[in-house]
Amino acid sequence: MTGIKIDGKIIAQTVKDRVKKATTELKSQGINPCLATVLIGNNPASATYVKNKHKACEEVGISTKDHKLDENITQQQLSEIIDELNADVSVHGILVQLPLPKHLNEFATTSRISPIKDVDGLTPHNAGLLAMKKAALVACTPSGVMEMFDYHNIDLEGKNIVLINRSNLVGKPLYHLLLEKNATVITCHSRTKDIEKFCQSADIIITAVGDRTKFILTPEMIKEKSIVIDVAISRFEDKLVGDCDYDKIIEKASFATPVPGGVGPMTVAMLLKNTITATSLGIQIGRQQ
Ligand code: GUN
Fold first, then answer.
1. Rounded to the nearest 10 degrees, what angle do helices 8-28 and 263-284 cross at?
2. Which of 45, 77, 199, 260 measures 20 to 30 Å from 216, CA to CA?
């Protein structure tokens, strides 16, 4: 028996429908939710992601401001642009697309964003609130994964969950979100010895490596009826792939996400949701327009 597909496109649409309603309501009160994106350099994958984010905003009625910056911009110039967006009352959310060109500092950049406009949940303020169970703005991919569990009524309490990622954008926020749900969470990474042993004892595996030359999650590595969430997306042998082959893993898993069409659409949907949350935070402190 094969498992159940967790369809990110369908679940993302339910989120978008809710966001569209909230946007319409805000507009009827004269408030126009707006997301500013900042894209630096010429990374084609990043350009596509930003384009998709703009398209999704348009679908639900959120306005956008598009900043495309030269590859050679200095840290100081970038900080000035972020400061301008922080001060712009018509902008409610700010997203600086990652990765940045090598000469720019990711921490200095993301922590420059006003915490109430931080739709990626990457500022120290929001990352700290998440660790203390008080977050309003949480990184989009992790909250999208949680939305997938919710949609399928997957109970996380007492589950052994293995994360294969420790980044600020995926692994660390997920660790806190899963812990809040009373799961037992193990974080594996590139230096973990014997990842296979951890995977075999996991009820749920959330994998986000994104490099097939380094890691592939095979059916032999997972427990019968476990749940596999594949966050990775990379180009391999001219195809978009995750860390596992969905068609093979679903033969053994009880639930799994495909790539593409799994976690990816959820990330975009949660960005829209965060933009509405950021708009509400702006209203609460009287900075809306
Ligand atoms: N690059 C890949 N994923 C993301 C994301 O969720 N946010 C930002 N800002 N950059 C990314």
1. 20
2. 45
